[in-house]
Protein 1
Amino acid sequence: MSSTRVNVPIRGAALLGIWMTLWSLPGWNGRVAAQEASSPASSTEETEAPEESASSPSEDLDLEPDHNMFFFGAFYNSVFTPRFATQLFFEDTPLIHTPLLGVEFTYRRHGFDLMFRGHWHFASFESPGRQIGVDPLETEWADASLNSIMVSASFLWGHQFNRYVGIQYGFGVGVGLAFGELSLSRAFASDADESVAGFQQCTGVSTDPSVCSTNVPTSGPVFTLWPRVTVPHLALRFRPTESMLIRVEGGADIFSGFFAGVSLSLGFGAAVIPEDRYGVDHLDFIGVEEMDERALRACLATRERETFGLSTSAEPECGTPPFDSGSLTIPFWRWPWADWPVLDQNIFSRDLRRVERWYRARGYYEAQVQASRTTPRSASVTDATSTASGEDLCERDGVGEGCRVDITVHVDEGRPTMVRSLELTGLESESQDLREEIRDQWELAVGERFDEALYEQSKRNMVRVLHDRAYGCATAVGEVRIDTEARTADVHIDLTAGPESVLGEITVVGNEDLSESVIRSVADLESGMPFTEERLSEAQHFVYSLGTFSTVDVLGVARRNEEGQCTGIVDVEIRVTPGRRFRYGLGGGVLSGQYFNNIDATDVRQWDIHLLAFVEHRNFLYGLRRLRLDVRPKIVFQPEEGTGPFPTPRFGVDVRLQFRQPAFIERRTNLLISGRYEFGPDPIDRYFRHFVDGGITIQRNFFDGRLNASLGVHANVFEVADTFEDEANAPSSFETLFLQAQVQLDLRDDSRNPTSGLYAAANIQAAGLLSWNYIRLVPEIRLYAPLWRFVLAGRFRLGMLFIEANDDRLDSVSRELGPNPYRLRLGGATSHRGYAAGSLGDRDVTCEGSDPSCVPYEQDSGGLRRWEAGLELRFRLTDSIRLVGFLDVGDVNREASFRFDYPHLALGFGFRYDTIIGPLRLDFGRAVAGSQFPGETAADIPDWQVFITVGEAF
């Protein structure tokens, strides 16, 4: 029998943030499996620890008066300094509004919240002002760009109406370091439209020379402490789920004005030891030297409380090599909510025997557990923490809680058994190439330690090779002869290929009322096809990719005659478990540094905080069709020079609708129909616009999903919503209609964190009939090679835009460079990290006159030719942390040829921290002087660029 199985993966969006749903996911009840090995002549014996009791309905820990709760999250506030507040000290000042964003940690007990915050406060304004009582002729003009990094603590009491809603009130104190630039000059009274609070700045040309003739601007840096006292601090507290907290808040800051905002946090209850049990604080081993202690712990049911730390290797799984990696682990701390594993004497006694059996499975037949010790000693004789009369046997961890216990196990490893010989028989009549491929499947080697897991893996590898050669009845029978005195092992495996096999009966099981015909069609298995394990694996992949099933198993069972002989026919059973068909959710997140235009992703200088509401049906109109609607309202931040990372937020909304029809035309071709409406600030040029996209695409995967090809047609409507004083140079609205073809070949070992392999892609657009006739071509190739603990990664990408015709009504930039969403740009977190997003290449200038070839903007707007290359050396420091050094080069220009003599070389370094949604990435890049372009000057070298995002650069 052969099988291929996939379970539901944990998915995450490519966002710098956390996706949170408003419903509780089903609990996962599992069991601890422990591997027990008796002798190498038999397969490894496994012993399971008793199942944990089913969890009782969750209690609302937040309402328990003596229970501790912890919340981690982020918040956003808008701070308003009204005129009446500033006029307590100054006259003729306007209202000042500034944003404040940060992270928070809250400790909650007895309904009282102690909340600690760290936040960034940015203020940029130009306004008049003068002290009270000063002559209006002495009014000054302040031009400020100030930042402050603050820490604060808030003390909030409140009342909980029910488990979902409550109110809070209290106060807060804090202190920050304010820094930035402040410029002061004279101001004169004016009733012009551009005046502020009735004044204008003296700039050298004035209608009131009597005031401005003495104007002497002064400027300089600001560096001072800034206090924060919030009285009152009021909030509405919402808990839509057990672990999510939303707080809508407001109040007054004595030193800054009024504030209002929202916070979003995840909550955790502090774990406690059950009242009459021992909680395992530490489980230590003495004498474990040759083997990896973590690999041994993975096979035991008794575990110590989890510790957060760093390790130089991945977390081991029970029975999975390597067992002697000798990893270095540095423990740091334990989270308060980390569960307490409890001591069970029966299970612990079996664990002591498991230690010896685990060592024998690793080839250490002399290994023994010499002794074990518990502190307190009472835990070695009973699981109870008190006597029948109620007398405590140990020191309790708290009122109504159990006791901590430390366990020490002494092990004598002994000496290992080494492999003396490896023998393979049974394939004498097969080809030399097949026998060579089979021999390459040995996981053991002469002169190395014998290990049962590697012995069993060798047999599985050999059978898999035969299965992929259509030998569906292939078997592997092994024998291991152990010389206990010499401590040697002679290993023999006999293989039987059997007849070449074909597929027999194909059945589908577990699909309920879901379309069996679609499942069969997508699996693409027919009776009479040659049997291979790869064919079953590919069928499993495509059935699972329908997105309707939580698990998919594709099982091949060799058919035998009455004498038990293989007939050469393999029957296939496709077992599926349907998931939820109708899904909906509400959540939120942060998207940083990228804009998705429905074709590809572009690095941009903006980030947003958004909500996401979606509804999806995965059996729409039956036939396993999928229909999904997403609505994403967002607050957009577009940093510019002088604004810091938190400029005045701007509102936007993104609505997407997608329909997917599987098995369209032929078995593995999908039909995709999509629609999108987006309103908000343009991520490049920043004016507000409406963007509508509709598309019809056919898409096909090949070779277990490694090769993907698609062809479709898209129509766009781009409508500028802002008005411009200079209509001649204003951006144009437009319409596009284009064919889109894309091919991707992915031979990487891991798409999110590759260590070896190749990735190649090509994207082609051909537009016509409407605002442009153009062809856009973007080919790319990436290579990855492992080098010990390093990975060398490289990328090369080109971009070409051929504009054959355009509409005369377009602005000059659009006529020259094409539609704004699809222009070729460079610079940013996923392209060239020496330059800010989209800023590399020819710079725009403000045009004078009516030259139609002039590009009339100060912002960067791309080009017609782009080339880029990158090289990274990635070093895995621990299981979850990697260090990276990188080199980026490339150029964008508006000519009809590439400028390879403009390298724009940049060097940098970065850090990666692996999460469930991909690596969290922090990169620092700097352009190298003397290697940018011919004739460069010091002013052409940008400062250090810093990028924070999720996912590798390539």
Protein 2
Amino acid sequence: MERNDWHLRESKAVLHSLKTDMYKGLDRSEARKRSRRHGVNRVWYVGRTSAKEYALACLSDLATVLLVITAVFAAIFEESTAAAYICALLAIGAVLRIGAYVKARRVLEKAAEESMPVCSVLRDGKLQLLRAEAVTVGDIVFLEGGDVVPGDGRIVSGEEIAVSERGITNNKKTVHKFDTVIRTDEKGSEVPAEYRSNILYAGSTVLWGQGRMVITAVGEETLIVRKQGGIRIGSMETLPLTERLNRWCKGSSLFMLAAVMVITGLALFTARSFTQVFLVTMAMAVASMSEYLTTIAYILVAVAVRDAGLKKNKKDESETRVHAKAAVITDSAVLEKLAGTDALILSDMELFKSGEMSLHAYNIGAENKHWNKDGEDEYLPVILRLLLSTVSGQQMHQSLAGTAITAMSDKYRQIQQAADQWTRCTGKTIEYDFRSLDHVSGKTGISGGLDTVLVQDREDVWAVVSGGIKEVMYCCTEYALEDGEGGFRSLPMTDEVRRRIFTSAAELAYMGASVIACARKKSPYTTLNRLSVLQSGMCFMGFAAIAESPATDAVEMVRRITEANFAVAVLSEDTEHDLYYGHDIGLFDKNTKILPFGSGEGLSLTPGSRTIVQMPSVYSPSLGSNVNRSDIRYKCLKSVLQSGNADKAGKTAVVCRNVLDARLLTLGDVKIVAGSATRPLPQPLKARADVVIYPKNRHGGFAEAVEAVSEARRALSNLWNAAVYLTISQISRLVMLLCGILPGGLIPSPSAVLLWGLILDFAAVLAMSFVKAPADILTFPDNRMGLPGGKRTIVKALAAGGIWGLLCGLLPVGISLLPIDGTDTTGIFLAAMFLSQTVMACSVGQYGSLFRHRYFHTTYALFVLAEICCAWASLLMYPTVWYTCFFALIPSAILLLLMEIGKAAESRKKTAGEEENPFRADDLQTEEALENTEENAEEDPEE
């Protein structure tokens, strides 16, 4: 039963009425029951494509009208068999076209559903990410800045939340919501929706603040659905690419109609039947498939959108995973720009990282030791044990749900992962034969930035600290040196030892590692009340250098964009760290340019360039508390883009993951946002994004972004191949028909032409749609990223079509000149036509030689099988002397030989160019980098 008085009741009363627990939420069984009772939360919906409307549009296009006219003329001239074949092919072609188009539209609509809002919901006492449509009445939803409210509900937490209700209520300004009770007068007059300060409405956006709400209305009961029927999500109804395709199709159709008139006129001067030639030429005009190319474009775009989102490792997926795709192309209109991208601007180096830490080196006895994963060091567990003890008190805290959960800080996560790595490599565990007596976090004001813990180890009580090398060394007057028997002895800390420790730590930090040091001393106290006394005169034990490993496939993607000569610019707040981390994964080299913040120098996105743009830290106190730091980053990037020659490159893609960088997206031709599997994507980012990528964990995203570019290039390259193939096929049919008018030549029947053009050509380009992207797809030149329009492409297409048509058209003439009796060349002619089509389609659609592919392509295999069946049926339909059947292989063999020779020559030319100008990434060692840095500092001491 619908209620409308939730705003008049206490939050506890609301929860009691809805029978839900604020700290546990609903369980799964109860949630399913309520979903059946209240229905699916369909606040957001995707516009669907009607197959009926598209079918009516297909019946009125030029190809269908011409086909109907051809069938009518065939019936008038007593060609009833031909008319029946034409009608059957009309029906088959229409079914294929409509079915393929609707299927492609469904794929695009499915991608649009990925753009639906996602929210954090408490189910069974656990916080889960669910789509908005899965939310039901009684669910407890956690909200914070950037989230979208999934349904109407009552705030049940004390925090204040600022939301935007523009378009939902009459409130056009920011509205503040909080847990309160609205009092009315004695008459109990109705409170308008815009004045209900404790109610949130579906579709509104949280601007800042955080808190919890309980869902009170979903679907048709929400305010937005009752007012305007819900919120429509676009499903890419129109594509800019199709407009160019339509223009190209019209030109092709006019050319084919003109050719029909010319060839029909030539038939008047030959012994051929005018009726036969007219029917064939009309069928040829229909078989040009020009009107079908738009459908093919939708198929190619749909395949690209689908494959861009496919996850390579399906084992990572689970039933509760919200984001089923790795990349969601939210706007297919940007597909061409995405394919033309050759410059990347990255918001930070976190896009390359996996979030997993690995032990790089450690220091003990004032000496650095690189840890060998295959070996074992008896002193390393001691350092890890001390570091873990200092952060053990941070493991547990109370969550918003009121339950104890593990919430590791970044420092604890780094130490724990390093310890786990040591355990995996050695097969041993770090023993904790002590107990913690007291703990003070490094975040408190009295701790000096050090995590301090008192531990009791057997008879002794030790005070142990951990933190940055500078803070720990400030507390130490001694340092520990191993005694060779598994123990330590203390020596006085000298200036030379202090300098050596600082230098070794600085070198590791310069390479991008996190250096965490520890020290200890015996304590006469069992509490940390005298913290300042305990943090003095300590013995320095050593430190661990922990490096963050790159994300999966990140290094491989860096190699691919390097080979493709992509320009890359990284916005950095820690230049030294990012420079060496980027060098470690192969992104940067000695030619990497650093643009200092505020220098006024412009950004150059020339092919192959690598640049680090220094940015002020988002948390830099020098900017002041009243400065919008995201505006500083935006203005800085805008300034360097305008001052440089960024416009000389192709399309520029901006990739970011932080909501503070939302404005940066507006500076790129393509806007790519890295989402997260652990929290909803902030609405300001989602609203601006053209492509949303979802890494396997909460880190990374660079590999998925490059993969999206690769899939977009594959789609346009496949469309390029399809258009070129159709051009060649049309030219070959014209040449073949001209050869058929000659004495001794053969003219194919209208049904054979329609089967070739409507069915088999459609099957060929459909097979091309699913061709996998080669490893070097990113290196394809720009002329492979669009429709054929260049002179070189047109000349090649005309030549290939002419050779194909001449070989098949002159084959009957050549056979008729041979002294062979009892041979019907019709079957040989048709078989040669189909086999040659197989060779041409495979050669155009495949990248490189047909004999060098290592994978099995199911779609192409089915296409080849269908072509062979058609060729065999033609030979059976028109019996010939058995050995003359081999003549059908001559055109296809010659075509295959010519295609392979052409591809071999192109490959040899490309190899020769690489040998003349080889691209080698400089393997810059750490020592060389340090020397270059010192030289630069000497040249420009102010900088």
Protein 3
Amino acid sequence: MSRWVWTVVAVSVVITPYVEAAQTQERWPLDCGSDGVPQDRFVPAQGVLDIDVQAPAGAVLVIEERGRDLEIRSGPDAAFEALSTRPPRLGLWAGTRSVQVKRSGAPGAEAPLRATLHCTPDAVHAALPACSAAAAALAAKGGALPLDLLAGTPLCRALLQHGLATFASRSGSPAEAARLYTDAIDSWRAAGDASREGAGWLGLTEQRLRLADHRAALVAAERAGALSERDGLPYFAARARAQACLIHGYLGDPRRASDCLGPLPDTFMAMGELGEAANTWYSLGLLAADAGRVDEAESAARQALAIAPSAITPIVRGRLLQLSARLALEAGRIDESIAAISGAIAAFEAAGDLRWQGNAYLFAAELHHGLGADAEARVFAEAAVQRFNGAQAPARMAAALLVQARILAARDSEAAWLATRRARALYVQAQMPLQIAEADVTALTLQATPEAERAVADALVSLPARRADQARLALAAAALRRGDRVAAGAELGRLSDRSLPLATALDRDLLRARLMVDEGAAAGALSLLERAIDALHALVRRAGTPGLRYALARRLALLRRAWVDAYLADPAARPGFEAAWSVLARTQITALLGHGTAAASVTGGSVDRALAAALLAPEDETNERDLSVQRELMRFYAERLRVAPNASAVERWVDVGRALAPGQVWIAFALGERGAIALKATSEGEALHRLESAEAIRHSSLALREALSSPTGPVAAIEAEARHLGERLFPDGIDASATQLWVMADDALASVPWALLRMPGDAGPLIERMAVSTTSGIPVSRAWAREPPALTALVASLSEARHEELAPLFGAEQEPRLIAGIVPDMPVTVMAGADLDETTLLEALAADANWVHVAAHGIHREGLPGYSGLWLAPVQADAPLRFIGWLALADTPLHAGLVVLNACQLAQADDLPDGGVDFATALVSAGVAHVVAARWTISDAASAQWVPAFYAALNADREAGPAFALRAAQLRMRAGRAFRHPYYWASLVHRQQSR
């Protein structure tokens, strides 16, 4: 769109020129010797041009831009102001006073300027101040065209019509804006102003594009270019050509569009138009990305982002960052994608563009929803809805509402249903039948009403194949919910084995398993689910980044839940311990996070690209290359479904017992939708228990968590809840001779304080009887045998770098000295302040068998899986704090023997049915042998007691290991008066590496 801003000041006096030495570079005297003759000069690249006017009262000075934005001021105390309601690079200023002019934006090439002094102005120029002032008001606020001015000269009419067209465009009224731009074009032509006529054609081009009238838009762009070429405006000509090139892409010829745009970045760079060059590279990158030419797209984005940020407008920088986010996501670089989209949001907020803000927020919502970060996804989706509403973009608002509905579905089905109905109404208003059907499918997944089923069934014949498969899946689920197994089976039978997206195929297999269970074929359901688990497990092992492995492993957790319910459905069909162990071992999220054997390809396609496109990328940004790669991915998955699970992919069940010594107990818990099981092993044998309902266990776990939310909570209530949960999880108790317990917990039990639970019949908590640890597999019991070479203390007390939410940890600074005194034979290295960064942290964690003590602020936010980590001090006092999350560590080989995290919440994960991860567990997954951490907030004063007690016990009996040292520290706290409340000691947990 061409935006016109006219700022006019009419003062009929002679003013003595002023000089500001710090800014003025050049002085240009103008007098009536050149009355009415245009004169061209250049505004210096840096500094200002001081125009000294000597003219009689009634004279009018006209200053015109000729290809670059200018700023002007008319007094020594005035601020420089941009000409804000004119077509870019074709602004105008009128008055009679001396002025200073400078380039707008970052320093660069000098800017052309044309000045005309009318000492005896004619009627046209005499009327210019009033006309342009009225046009500026119309562009800013709209309103009715003033009839008295509209009846004036063609120039005045053109100004008014163009100003109102600008307002209509900004207000989201493209049809009205197109009509006004057409009127303005006629008036500019009548006024003989070819330059601004061309600007009018550019404005009309954008409106035609908004109305999807691409051929008319192409005609307008070509006309704008021809006029600009004829009038000697190379910048405007190149801009018009760029629009015409893009329109060829809209008309179905993206290759021609790319070839046409190709030379333009260099053209703009030669002009010094760095921002336009960046914008054109963005367009080239987007075309390449849509065509699957990833290398070209990334090259274009890199070249654009290499330009200094000050030379690029916020809107262009935001677009480039959003393109970078998309490319990073498609390549599986999730952390890079999150960082880029965050930068894009900030840029669009700075630009004040609601539509682009909405697009960026919607991308972020879908990405975070795919990662399971639904708390953050909800915030982004709501922001997208608000921005699209403000931008009067109903179709985009409807798309955001559907994403919002999918995010809300698990926690607030009523709100999700309302969002879906609002989206459908907007699509009906916009007459978008495919999107209406999509809304109907989403509605059916939320409420299986007869009306919703009929609407989806009626739309099937008109839906593309991928959408039709999703619709049939929704119909099958609805039929199964109402008990119509025949209808459900028929719909599932119509789905393809090979053409479905991976996420849809997994939903299909879950439904197939449920249908088999309902039909009494539990053995078939177990077989299907075991093969699906094996296939997905194989893909997890090939994923190249921890973010992708996490996204896949969450879906493994859903398959495990279905397997547990199928296992409990028919006692005669239950497999043995070996099969149960295989399922549990393959579906442990934390065991799959760390660095592994990521393969380069699946039958010629990039695994990471395929997985990111299948699980995380917004569907409207999926290109043909992505679809091809996803087909390769589905071929791999479908082939794995046809073969028996790979028994060698996990250690055998018999190895669990062999890893245990007398007195050691290992228990794994797995919850389904309805039932739950526990596998228990000792050195003497094993047992499998059917537990109470999964719902009762989840409810009891939540009740205990709520009871422990405060250090002033009633101890009797906490003990009662701990007893209830212990009875549900350990119905047969644990042998009185046991001294150590390892728990492999279901993800839905992530926040259970195991040491606090009470066995049936016990008077006290588990910690009084044994050391308690958590693990994600078979514990490596001999991991503690080696003597540590040294201890590294990492201290981020923040005593000098306060943060509004983080108080200084004064006690943390004393901890290295205390530890050194307790363990005198071990060298202690202290890293603190600005010296403590991600590099030094990783070096300490990677040192073989090293002990690492971290005293810092930790944080965990429920629903934000990537937001579990450490706060470190800033590099400089006025710089922001630095954050290190688990995603930055999970993919790095770590070899420390012991890490003690004296920081809040770093062992806290979300109790999610489909999985959650915490910072401490990520360290163990990456290779740390033992980690001690706190689940929730723990005070500085409490740390002063448990830290010395822990290291004293560890030094006294190093062979016993950290689990027993932590037990001693917890018992010490229980025995005292200040911290005997379970809130303090039950927060501490020990995690141990598995193999």
